[in-house]
Amino acid sequence: MSETNASPELLKTPDGTPLKVALSRTLRYRKRTALLLVAPLFLFVMVTFLFPIFDMLSRSVDNKIMHEIFPQTTALLGEWDDSTGKLPDEAVFKALVLEGQVAAKEKTINKVGKRLNYETSGMSSLFRKTGRKLLRFDPEKLETNYTDVILGIDKKWKDIENWRLIKRESAKYTAAYYYAALDAQMTSAGLEFKDENKQIYMTLFGRTLYMSSLITFLTILLGYPIAFLLASLKTRTSNLLMIMVLLPFWTSLLVRTSAWIALLQKEGVINDFLVGIGLIGDDSRLQMIHNQTGTIISMTHILLPFMILPLFSVMKTIPPSYMRAARSMGATPFTAFRRIYFPNTIAGIGAGGILVFILSIGFYITPALVGGTDGTMISNFIAYHISESLNWGLAAALGTILLLLVLALYILYDKIVGIDNMKFG
Amino acid sequence: MALPLHAEMSERIWYYCFRIICGMIFVFLIFPILVMFPLSFNAEPYFTFTPEMLSLDPAGYSTQWYEKFFTSSTWQAAVRNSLVIAFFSTLISTFLGTLAALGLSRPEFPYKTTIMGILISPMVVPLIISAAGMFFFYSRIGLQGSYIGVILAHAALATPFVVITVTATLVGFDHSLTRAAASLGSPPTRTFFYITVPLITPGVISGALFAFITSFDEVVVVLFVGSVNQRTIPWAMFSGIREQISPTILAVASILVTFSIILLTVLEMLRRRNERLRGMSAA
Which end of chain B is more exposed for a tag (fewer CB within 10 A), N or C? Predict the structure, then answer.
């Protein structure tokens, strides 16, 4: 510092600070104001969005219920060696009775039963029954020991497997929901996968991925010619035709879904038309809605603009002289397209394809309305487990898997397009 | 892409085939939306054309479904809810989003990609996951089933659209304009209101429109975070389609399409204005 100060030709601002210092001060100040401008939104998104999602997803490993309601029992069970084939000792039974009585009074015992019932059916009724009996039990009138009290309630308590289950699910965190989401289950013999024909979620993930891929493929197939046409027409004409792409884009999702119901249903416009021209009989109307076909048709329609717009913006940047050059050197129109034009549009296909794929694997509304049973997707099951079966842990596990899938695609999208370059309309 | 005079026969055939294919795809895009308009005037409670409608018999048409919509208290409450929720969430998201875009577009902003990724996340996360997360969170803090809860949720979902649109406007922003103002002695606030604001206004308005439409069209989150009191138009349509499907839905849909046509026109006008302004700033 002293050396620079000694330098005679050092530039200084009017108040005597060296220019370098003044500049870095200004830059620091500007950086701080830039951060301050972003801070409110950053906090807002963190509090109202990211934290709730993180909190919800953490339910997929959360297993505190057993621990909270039966703290002593679980602690004692931790010391029990489940490989000997013997029931736990008296101390565990005593803790179970005493803590069970409290839990029965507070009506929390059923929650434990419900949790364990996800692993082994019958646990819910066992805990309900135990709770009922324990409410009537008076520790003062203990006849022999606590072990007999519990074993007297239900013979299921004699089953060593049930105790192993309780011991296994006493940990504060569990992977059980993830196993369930992958159609597997942890047993004392290790991880067991369900038979192929009994798998629910693997089938569902498979179907979601299959439908999303098919929809992505269809949007490329239908979107490519339209984008090509729009990019090669004169601006005035293409602006007019663009309205036909933008109008569906701006129309409410529910409006478009109901339009497809009106068109595709059994008494709908298309069936009426086909019957009218005599192509099919009145009694053999086509079932085109409330199944996979209906979902795929309407979702392709809904997502098509998301394919056309990025493709169009990429095609717009390809100079027409490329194609003319190829033709002038003797390429047939097809060769010129295949070797010159198409490779230049790959980035657009990638961008639009990933966008459509990301949007379609998370679709909920359209499959819920027109999906029937074989057109539903993973989102519909997440919703079902949240609002109907109330198995929130499983919903969270399914949600986490879905989210990881989307994030992976998002990173890919960022690599191809860059999120900074995202635009609409 | 006019057909050159020297085109061969095969090229001619392909040229017309291609046009026909494109025409069919355009029909696929636009027909489902247009078909609702005549269907919504059906005299019968069906989702299809009756013989009377096809023979253009006036008796086959009626405006009863529109009357139902305008007189039903459920639908009117839904319209009011949709407008109130969309208005306030647009206000919040436009304000926060514009501020953030102004900060993000400064060249000295650190960790831009990471921060941008976080700010855009509400647009990327599947709606059902956002809805579930917000449902549990707002239930815990007592905002589930309240207007404030739904408004905050929609504002969070809409901010990415504002951030992206305004940032895109600022990419073409000529910073020498603000420097020129500063060199002429204008204080930063004055420069901001007299130079920056007029230039970014088109971007902000189209961002706000995006935010409005996001909230206005959103149904998954409101289904989880809202209660019957916050029932919006999309919610009413969703349950209408599930429970008793009536042409009232088509009448509502037609009104909404008209609404989006108006919106589209406004956006197009803004886009042109923005281009004009940019042309000016570049000159």
Answer: C
